[in-house]
Amino acid sequence: MTYLxxxxxxxxxxxxxxxxSVLLSGSMYQGYFEAMPLPSxxxxxxxxxxxxxxxxxxxPRFRGPMFYVEGSRGSYLCAYSFTKKGRAMLCPSGESLRxxxxxxxxxxxxxxxxxxxGTKGAKENYIYMERDVDLGLIARDILGEGPTxxxxxxxxxxxxxxxxxxxxxxxxxxxxxxxxxxxIEVIKDIKVKEGALGLGSVLISPAIVDVVDDNKxxxxxxxxxxxxxxxxxxxxxxxxxxxIYRLLSLGFDNGxxxxxxxxxxxxxKVDVKGPVGLCTERGWGSVMEF
Length: 290
What we know:
The chain is mainly beta. It is about 10% helix and about 45% strand.
């Protein structure tokens, strides 16, 4: 197995769409800012890294994102999850399953002014708001101490992937909104074994689907059932992830915005093995064994 651990060097901006856009209106912009990147963000980041380092003209197939945390008290491999009350990291811990809430205190709120690329000056009335996530602070909450290693983890599927991707080790690239810097670490094995709880497959990235009927999701000629996962919070309460659907953009391709698509949000259990939905070669619909 070959993993790439992407660690933002500053608080990162991961936008999953929004209610309005500075490109469409002059109103205050309020987007959906999340604690983990979309597969399209990872795809663009890896594609550029592969081109710059002479590894090819496209990103490899990958599975992710997962949130990996390592410290003196243990290691955790977590799935970013949607709940009815907000967001959380869903993490196997020993023989149990824990939910670590992602809260406002994990973000830095900023207000910015959009720039005109031609004049290099500010666009009148184009004000926007962003939320920068501090993944190091989330990692500290999970471990109960400062982490020795943490970041966005993806598994790469490529012929002779480990030897090939070693060229990426310690390289730095622009990651997420505002092109914040992130460092890549190539890892052959991680300290966490998947499937230890025997709970089955959990969605770790949005799954692009054709049809939704309650908890049944359909794509092409395939279907699966999505169900909430119950886990214990840090405070000792029991809370469930939620089956949530949202329209998401599939990103950009050759400078052209790809269409919007219906997606099932991560953190739910699915009754199939392997990826779920469409565009799985670019990370959408990735699953992790719990």
